[in-house]
Design a protein that fits this description.
2 copies of one chain form a homodimer. Chain A is of the alpha/beta class and 538 residues long. Chain A folds into 2 domains: 235 residues, 3-Layer(aba) Sandwich (Aldehyde Dehydrogenase, Chain A, domain 1), CATH 3.40.605.10; 181 residues, Aldehyde Dehydrogenase, Chain A, domain 2 (3-Layer(aba) Sandwich). Chains A and B meet through helix 5, strand 5, strand 6, helix 9 and helix 15 of A and helix 5, strand 5, strand 6, helix 9 and helix 15 of B.
């Protein structure tokens, strides 16, 4: 059982900006935290950062970069592990605060805390292994004709200060010490977090933890900062700042594109890795549907409503051929959806966004309401909803391709295989696509599955898109508009690749080469030497 | 000895657009080719592509993608090798035409042809080796608690049609079948080349060769196209086209940034890999300068004027501490520069650009003309020039950081170490930086060398920046404004990484997995399986 908050919380909800190791609150504007499930204010007045505080933050980050950049892989790994330890040390106070600010159940927050710590530790291991720097060595050939070949060695180096926009739907795993922060720090860059306005207290607690970890492990002042402010104003100032070298964002299409535009209009354009809207189509192929309509409906009722539908990978579209078994599927899905209780969404904005988007979708010509959860809704509760439309109706109306962020899914009844393929060809980029199929379906519908691969970052067979494994092979990011840059992932160890660039050394003395490129390969990293992969010395 | 052109040229200079395998000339506007060394017109009326022809080109490329994407690595490798063979088979006709259109000596064109063929063959080898797709496999753990772990496998896949802007300064190696085309084709994407207006005939001959190679090796119609048109108009249309998925460009900062802006303003933003301006600073450290002033001057007189200074990596800035040996260096450099004969530049635009930029540089306060080549200049000949300025003068005037594209270099006399570091800190991103140093200099001036690394894609020790080795460890691209995206290279086998994205497969049946991800690893590519690198089966 959790103790009452005032007894267990040793931390003052000071509401200040964390600028490197210093707390600062020179501003006059402030925000309060709200419990979305009760509408009541939570403790803490969160002071917005002033322009001068933003400037100071960026200066401190730039100064820290020169020092942090040179820390060894082991030193950085210890820092990341210390962050995980400090987060755990926040104990119930963090769990309670995060749960109160987001309406997410405490059990979910505890699970997410484990994931967040797991991510930090995964990057620590990745640093210790070291091969991610993609060292390549082409040895000199002084006697080559007509010109001698120089010695050229290349590896990845960090880019500089990274601004991270915390996401609302994962107040730990995609927020202050989430995957973006972990990967940017692992790459060797200082991080400046724009705290999410809907969980400012959670962000403060985690920022405190990160700074304690930084001090304990000897990291420079400025390696991490956490600022409060109004989204657009603070976000724009951070992205425009000339000392910012890269940006990571998870959120809406409109938010991500506004930041992308701002970043491209700078004198020095910088990348914005925005993970944005996705409707995550699920194609149910005929033999699978005929065999398992009822089971599929039960599995998908769960996936559509998991976490009140507030996952980037929520299955927003279910595509199938019209058939008696599709009717069975819809009937069973409707039964399940009606019985699922509405639950509070993350905050007022998310709730209002869901209500409006759901209403817009329902108002579209040809869209049938198949089922919605019964009962009254209070306190920003989102109502689980399933609708349907014909393939023809879907193809005629691009509004139906817009994400309805929440517990909502649209079933598309296609009249034949050609129409089904056309429906998929009409879609923009997606984080995920899923195919529910027997082996015979896979063989018969290869073109459909290939098309799903063409538009997606991850192609799932006989599963649900919700649930994003943190691992080396994960791709979380897809062709536009799922991401601004589908060549990178925001989940898994490859997320580090967003925040580095290659640097070649030509005829560099051994004394000046980084460890990863020295002849004797002291870190035993895997390298490509004259085209041959190995992890030994030269 | 080369035969007269009319005897050896078996190819009709038809001047048409190559749209897939078809030649098309529906337009009314046309361009003529000019010999910059004589001012005379060359054979061929080059018909500009119409909007309908552009549309047809993009449709054909998109259709070709679906087929080409599925060709095996071996099939694509044979295609690239066939292109190299067909280019060689063009024989003297190509050499003569390229030389006449660019004023580059025939020996240089022959060398560049070798490099171009070498690039194509290097990508063929890279495809056959196969490990570049960065396959990662995380095996399932069905018994994991609290949730089973799915099987996830990831590798790089092509993005779709790539538009390549041919560069003027390498009419073969950075043009129609140059590194951008070779890497985009190797990645599995169709290519549409915007022919450079200053070597339209060369582009036509090479486009013909590519299409012959495509037919001989069974590649789909539309895998390659070559269009003529006015730079801004055709370029904008191609970048705006919704079927274009990526763009490669080598040229001016203004040209690259205009394309980047256009690409970011699309409904679906796409990357523009623009390799743009760079002044490639060279720092001459004191002990090296004291020991070898005269030799350094001779080496650099050659590098500054190589190819009439028309290399992206031309050393435009020489930075050193003021000293008697710097005076010796400048005196010797001046002697050499005065004796170097002016030579025709690539075309009228390049020549006029050089004259104007040189004039602007000479007019800046505090800039001293140290030496210029003697004698009259005719036929777009660029006059080798060396100037100098104090460190203070350089820091006060950002105009001096602008590239003077041609045989020009500015020597910066710094009054002390701090000023030298400040000069380097004031600079934008560079393709290359060079340090001329003894071992003692390297130890003593680590901060200077680190700063050069911070701003550059390639850091050269005791050499010249001109000359870009085509190899695995090469980085040709640097922080902005050297490139729009310093995370990628346009030279060397890693150039392929610009035109791919990762795709994850979750719980995918073996039958549907690409060869690189199958359990038995039939292609024996290097993969990371559950964190362990190996090239065997699972």
């Amino acid at each position: 059982m959790l103790l009452p908050l005032f007894l267990i919380n040793p931390f003052n909800m000071h509401g200040k900006n964390q600028i490197g190791f210093a707390l600062s609150s020179n501003g006059e504007l402030m925000q309060k935290a709200v419990n979305p499930a009760t509408g009541q204010f939570l403790s803490g007045d969160f002071i917005n950062a002033t322009d001068e505080e933003i400037e100071l933050t960026m200066e401190r980050a730039t100064a820290a970069f020169a020092v942090y950049n040179k820390k060894s892989a082991e030193e950085k790994a210890l820092f990341l592990e210390a962050i995980a330890d400090e987060i755990l040390a926040l104990g119930d106070a963090l769990v309670r605060r995060a749960s109160s600010e987001t309406a997410l159940p405490e059990a979910r927050i505890i699970g997410e805390r484990g994931r967040t710590m797991g991510q930090l530790k995964a990057f620590a291991s990745h640093l210790r292994e070291g091969s991610w720097k993609e060292a390549r060595i082409d040895l000199a050939q002084p006697d080559r004709q007509p010109l001698p070949k120089p010695d050229i060695r290349k590896m990845l180096v960090p880019v500089g200060p990274v601004v991270v926009f915390a996401a609302s739907n994962f107040p730990l795993a995609f927020s202050t010490a989430g995957g973006d922060t972990a990967s940017a720090l692992a790459a060797g860059n200082p991080v400046i977090v724009k705290a999410h306005g809907a969980h400012l207290g959670t962000s403060q607690l985690v920022a405190d933890a990160i700074c304690r970890a930084a001090k304990k492990t000897g990291m420079p002042d400025g390696v991490f900062s956490n600022l409060n402010g109004k989204g657009y104003q603070l976000g724009t100032a951070l992205v425009k700042h000339p000392k910012t070298k890269s940006v990571a964002f998870t959120g809406s299409l409109s938010g991500g594109m506004a930041l992308h535009k701002t970043a491209q209009e700078r004198a020095e354009p910088i990348p914005v890795f925005a993970e944005m809207g996705s409707i995550n189509p699920v194609v149910m192929l005929p033999k699978k549907m005929d065999a398992e309509a009822v089971q599929l409906a039960d599995v998908y009722a769960g996936s559509i409503t998991l976490g009140v539908g507030q996952f980037c990978t929520n299955p927003g579209l279910i595509v199938a051929l019209d058939s008696p078994s599709l009717n069975d599927f819809i009937a069973q899905l409707s039964l399940s959806i009606k019985k699922i209780l509405p639950a509070s969404m993350l905050n007022e904005n998310v709730y209002k966004g869901y209500v409006a988007a759901r209403e817009t979708a329902l108002a579209q010509s040809g869209v049938t309401l198949e089922a919605e959860a019964e009962g009254d809704t209070v306190n920003f509760e989102g109502r689980p909803t399933v609708t349907s439309v014909s393939g023809e109706g879907f193809l005629k109306n691009t509004t139906l391709q817009e994400e309805v962020f929440g517990p909502y899914s649209l079933v598309i009844r296609c009249s034949n295989k050609e129409e089904l393929l056309e429906v998929l060809q009409s879609m923009g980029g997606q984080l995920t696509s899923t195919v529910m199929a027997t082996e015979a379906d896979v063989a018969e519908h290869a073109a459909v599955i290939e098309q799903l691969g063409n538009i997606s970052g991850r192609l799932i067979f006989n599963g649900v898109p919700t649930g994003v494994e943190v691992c080396s092979a994960m791709q979380h990011g897809g062709p536009f508009p799922a991401s601004t840059d589908g060549r990178f992932t925001s989940v898994g160890t490859d997320a580090i690749l967003r925040f580095v660039r290659p640097l070649s050394y030509q005829n560099c003395p051994q004394s000046f080469l980084p460890e990863e490129l020295k002849d004797n390969n002291p870190l035993q990293v895997w390298r490509v030497v004259d085209g041959v992969r190995n992890n030994g010395p030269i």
